[in-house]
Amino acid sequence: MTTETQAPPQVETLPFAKALNAGLRAALAADDHVLLMGEDIGRLGGVFRVTEGLQAEFGERRVLDTPLAESGIVGSAIGLAMAGFRPVCEIQFDGFVFPAFDQITTQLAKMTNRHEGAMSFPVVIRIPYGGHIGAVEHHQESPEAYFTHTPGLRVVSPSTPNDAYWMIQHAIASDDPVIFMEPKSKYWLKGEVDMSTPALPLHASRVVRRGTDVTLVGHGAMVTTLLQAAALAEGEGTSCEVIDLRSLSPIDYGPILDSVRRTGRMVYAQEASGFTSLGSEVAATVMEKAFFALEAPVLRVSGFDTPFPPAKLEGQFLPDADRILEAVDRALAY
User: Fold this and answer.
1) pLDDT tens digit sequence for 194-244
2) CA dist 297 to 31, 252, 323, Å?
């Protein structure tokens, strides 16, 4: 009789950026068709050092420094995908993606449909987004709604180092274009990364804290703020359940609806402006599908409907735990 022994889990504590680096390294090592391309990602390792050391390890033909031309980067990636490669593009900052917007939304997103499914376009576009780093305009914005509105694109955003490690690999393995939104304020967040056991599927949402009174939903860096708000609410006798969306398109509504049907109340929080935003869509869908379970309207907490302000004012613009708790109180007051 033989007894099978399982290898012990390989768990490391890594900053978010290093977890992404490890995930990219694993993808490069697993498939010679994976390429990284972007401005200063090679010798420098990117402005946030996410690709640090990868050019030295895999060579300049696999980790390419490009000109300062986002449209050219994505256009070249489309051609590489047609030739059988799996390019991963880095956009240095969220506000710099718009020169490539036409290539992404009117070309890349539609190419598979244009070819009636005969060709796949496995392009990943990494976009650092969001605030909390004290930068100027075009460096702290949250443009995710532009891409979730575009059929043909998958859009995801990890909030933990473990998700960063696994989700970047799952995105690269996808045969569809993936917009990979990286909350830049979390690049230095440390957490455990289990490199032996895959996390959830790419498009699954996750309950990160159990509760009974109010459901709090968000994505990216906002998940940390929601957890802070839930901890403060607990001290006041309110039990908040927190759900990390993870995938922004498609959205896994199962855990959200299950939670709302138990709590009867929901608050969605995001850094992006509120008008016609991802939070608007989630709120509308929850009210459509769980209307009779709701004890109060679904409430939204968001950045204001203004251009992103100077760094000294970002604390007033971005939602914090106090603004979320105020929404929780309003939901409970119904």
Assistant:
1) 999 887 999 999 999 999 999 999 999 999 999 999 999 999 999 999 999
2) 48, 21, 17
Residue 9 is encoded by which pair of tokens? 């889990």
Which residues constitute the domain of residue 80?
A: 13-194
Question: Distance (Å, rounded) from C-alpha 246 to C-alpha 281?
Answer: 15
Residues 100 and 115: their CA atoms lie apart, in Å, by: 22
8 A C-beta contact, residue 10 and residue 196:
yes
Beta bridge mates, 266 = 215
pTM, two decimal places: 0.94
CATH number at residue 214: 3.40.50.920
Of the candidates 33, 139, 149, 203, the residue annotated as catalytic is: 139
Q: What angle do CA 303, 143, 18 make, to 5 degrees?
A: 100
Give Dmax (Cα) for the chain.
69
Burial of 28 per CB tally in 10 Å (0-12, 13-18, 19+): buried
Q: What is the mean pLDDT of residues 12-40?
A: 97
Q: Among candidates 95, 27, 100, which has minimal Cα distance to 57? A: 27
Structure tokens belonging to residue 236:
């006041």
Q: Which residues contact 250 (CB under 8 A, 6 or more apart)?
A: 154, 203
> Is 203 a residue of the active site?
no
Q: What is the CATH number of the domain that holds 33?
A: 3.40.50.970
